[in-house]
């Protein structure tokens, strides 16, 4: 438009028929956000007007109130003069990837070494202090909770809370201005670019958690902020025989129609935008099953997956699915096409149950070895499994071993939100305690889960702060807690410092041991060395038999892995100690304890015995018998 340049603030008004029963919700009194806006300023100001298309209490009547004072404004962003310099994508192979899930604000809001004015911002995450922690920890990719512009839901505003996690998108091309140190004028755009550039310089990839399954407009009773007022039927899924009602498989009130041309174009344009304009390395798709529903059920051959796979800009980026939604048949772990990796909820549940003493070794072993029963289809492999013990959604690792029940009162939902109980809790005393025995068990259980995570085949994902023993005070659904409940606490006592050092050693060993980073499944067949690539051990030293695998009470197991470095895991998930007979000399001439959740140390002779305390995991490195040193 003549005279409109960079920095101009704008919105749209769209006129058309008002007939909610037919899904027509045009209302020219409502100022609308441009779906393609590159920057957005301000939040919804509920107290300044009604951004609702309908009259309060009556969804059938059009509301004539001008919403302009109450809604965010789009900002014109000029041609980028950002200097990318020699920025290069780290391009880590999947088998060498370690994902670190973090919240831009929560990670640096209390981090020492970050200037006060940069804490909680993109610039804060680009700071030396933030990057130093990531590098020393040994992660290779950060997975950022949503950084698209969002709108907090009305019910949270009424409670004096905000949508802290950010799964409430209203701008698919616009970086969230709330995470920028820069104020106004679209400065968040270049600040985000500088953050990506700084992380790339440290060889750390940037993966965005993106929400293309629903928007912040919510149900039919929600506000008219963008797509609903531009062309409701072109963007949202509605009931075929009742277009006034939304299809809702997301639990938020609406579902975007990924089979519709306008939505496909919007989402693909958005994805390409983040790759080309911000150099991001991949995406994690929230409730990704909703993206593959065409007409009803999930289809791994849905148009969206085909389009993404064929797009030349997106061909080389990492694609991660959250493989479920709330619709019928919504749990689809293992059901996504080749080229996608998936959050493996079966892995999470199995590892928690095993260390709680409720799962036999057969199920534990399947997950440890990469979940071939789930990801064994052609074109897939262990790196299709993103393994995790905890994520943003649920208890932190420390709270997992501390609280039997959720403590979500601060969310002001009467305790109805979040999972009802903690299936992994088994530490005897619920809540914080000074009892040294209980504290020691909890510390060991955290080390057990971390060691299992980083020694498993697949792609490990660590939730930010779990290496620090972070607590949310038992809140297992802190989506609306933009405060000390969610922000990482960097003041470490001795116990938390030890956990951090343990995690660093784990990641360093994984990085330096290619035997642990296989892109293919174990076979159990002999390799060039004459010994099998994997050998499952009974505690008495013999190979596991079918009878052993079927033993529901078996809680102890060993795994020998052959490769450039020979390694041995010994695992005891029982409540009593177990003596392990170590493999004979043809597997290794001697063994050295590398890591132990029970602080074992020193060397062990081949064929000798090693006592494992209750609930303990030990990692040993073996010296091949034909090594010149022997």
Please state the CA-atom Rg, rounded to the nearest Å.
26 Å
User: What is the number of E strands?
Assistant: 27
Query: What does the main sheet amount to?
Result: 8 strands, parallel, barrel
**Nearest-integer average pLDDT:** 94
* N- to C-terminal distance: 79 Å
Structural class: alpha/beta
In CATH terms, what is the fold-level topology of the domain at 94-343? Answer: TIM Barrel
Report on this model:
Helix content is 23%, strand content 18%. Helix 9 crosses helix 10 and helix 13 (436-455) runs parallel beside helix 14 (494-512). The strands form eight sheets. An eight-stranded parallel barrel has the order 8-9-12-15-16-17-18-19. Among the domains are: 94-343, TIM Barrel, CATH 3.20.20.80; 522-623, Immunoglobulin-like (Sandwich), CATH 2.60.40.
Task: Please write out the topology.
Layout lengths: L8 E2 L7 E2 L4 E2 L13 E3 L12 E2 L2 E5 L10 E3 L23 E4 L1 H5 L13 H4 L2 H10 L3 E4 L3 E3 L3 H5 L10 E7 L11 H15 L3 E6 L16 H9 L2 E2 L2 E5 L14 H18 L3 E4 L17 H8 L7 E4 L19 E3 L1 H11 L5 H8 L3 H4 L9 E3 L9 H4 L35 H20 L3 E5 L30 H19 L21 E4 L8 H4 L6 E6 L4 E7 L5 E4 L8 E7 L6 E3 L3 E4 L3 E8 L7
Parallel strand pairs: 8-9, 8-19, 9-12, 12-15, 15-16, 16-17, 17-18, 18-19
Antiparallel strand pairs: 1-7, 2-3, 4-7, 5-6, 10-11, 13-14, 20-21, 21-22, 22-27, 23-26, 24-25, 24-27
Helix pairs in contact: 9-10, 13-14
């Amino acid at each position: 438009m003549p005279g409109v340049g960079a920095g101009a603030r704008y919105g749209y008004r769209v006129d058309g028929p008002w007939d909610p029963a037919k899904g027509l919700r045009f209302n020219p009194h409502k100022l609308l956000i441009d779906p393609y806006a590159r920057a957005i300023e301000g939040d919804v100001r509920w107290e300044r007007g009604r951004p609702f298309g309908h009259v309060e209490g009556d969804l059938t009547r059009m509301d004539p109130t001008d919403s302009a004072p109450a809604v965010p404004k789009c900002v014109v962003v000029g041609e980028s003069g950002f200097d990318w310099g020699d920025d290069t994508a780290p391009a880590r192979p999947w088998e060498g990837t370690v994902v670190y899930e973090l919240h831009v604000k929560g990670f640096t809001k209390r981090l020492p070494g970050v200037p006060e004015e940069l804490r909680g911002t993109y610039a804060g995450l680009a700071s030396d202090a933030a990057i130093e922690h990531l590098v020393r920890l040994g992660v290779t990719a950060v997975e950022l909770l949503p950084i698209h512009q969002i709108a907090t839901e009305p019910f949270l505003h009424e409670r004096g809370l905000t949508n802290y996690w950010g799964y409430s998108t209203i701008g698919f091309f616009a970086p969230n201005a709330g995470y920028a140190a820069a104020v106004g004028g679209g400065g968040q755009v270049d600040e985000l670019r500088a953050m990506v550039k700084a992380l790339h310089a440290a060889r750390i990839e940037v993966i965005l958690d993106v929400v293309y399954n629903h928007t912040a407009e919510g149900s039919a009773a929600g506000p008219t902020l963008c797509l609903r007022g531009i062309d409701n039927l072109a963007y949202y899924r509605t009931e075929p025989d009742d277009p006034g009602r939304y299809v809702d498989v997301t639990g938020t009130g609406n579902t975007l129609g990924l089979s519709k041309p306008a939505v496909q174009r919007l989402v693909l344009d958005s994805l390409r935008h983040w790759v080309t304009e911000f150099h991001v390395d991949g995406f994690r798709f929230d409730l990704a099953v909703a993206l593959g529903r065409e007409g009803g059920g999930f289809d791994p051959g849905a148009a969206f997956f085909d389009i993404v796979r064929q797009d030349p800009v997106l061909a080389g980026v990492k694609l991660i699915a959250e493989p479920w939604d709330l619709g019928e048949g919504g749990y689809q772990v293992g059901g996504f096409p080749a080229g996608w990796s998936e959050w493996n909820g079966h892995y999470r549940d199995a590892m928690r149950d095993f260390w709680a003493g409720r799962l036999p070794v057969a199920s534990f072993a399947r997950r440890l070895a990469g979940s071939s029963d789930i990801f064994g289809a052609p074109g897939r492999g262990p790196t299709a499994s993103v393994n995790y013990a905890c994520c943003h959604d649920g208890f932190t690792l420390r709270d997992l071993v501390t609280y039997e029940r959720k403590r979500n009162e601060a969310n002001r939902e009467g305790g109805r939100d979040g999972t009802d109980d903690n299936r992994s809790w088994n530490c005897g005393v619920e809540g914080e305690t000074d009892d040294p025995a209980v504290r020691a068990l909890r510390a060991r259980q955290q080390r057990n889960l971390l060691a299992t995570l980083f020694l498993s085949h697949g792609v490990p994902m660590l939730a930010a702060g779990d290496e620090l023993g972070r607590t949310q005070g038992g809140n297992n659904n802190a989506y609306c807690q933009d405060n000390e409940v969610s922000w990482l606490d960097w003041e470490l006592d001795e116990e938390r410092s030890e956990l951090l050092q343990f995690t660093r050693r784990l990641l360093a060993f994984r990085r330096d041991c290619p035997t642990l980073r296989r892109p293919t499944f174990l076979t159990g067949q002999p390799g060039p060395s004459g010994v099998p690539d994997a050998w499952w051990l009974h505690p008495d030293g013999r190979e596991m038999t079918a009878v052993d695998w079927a033993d529901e009470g078996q809680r102890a197991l060993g795994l020998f892995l052959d490769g450039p470095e020979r390694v041995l895991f010994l695992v005891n998930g029982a409540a009593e100690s177990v003596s392990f007979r170590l493999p004979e000399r043809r597997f290794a001439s001697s063994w050295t304890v590398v890591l132990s959740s029970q602080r074992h140390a020193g060397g062990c002779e081949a064929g000798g015995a090693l006592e494992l305390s209750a609930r303990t995991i030990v990692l040993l490195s073996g010296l091949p018998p034909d090594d010149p040193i022997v």
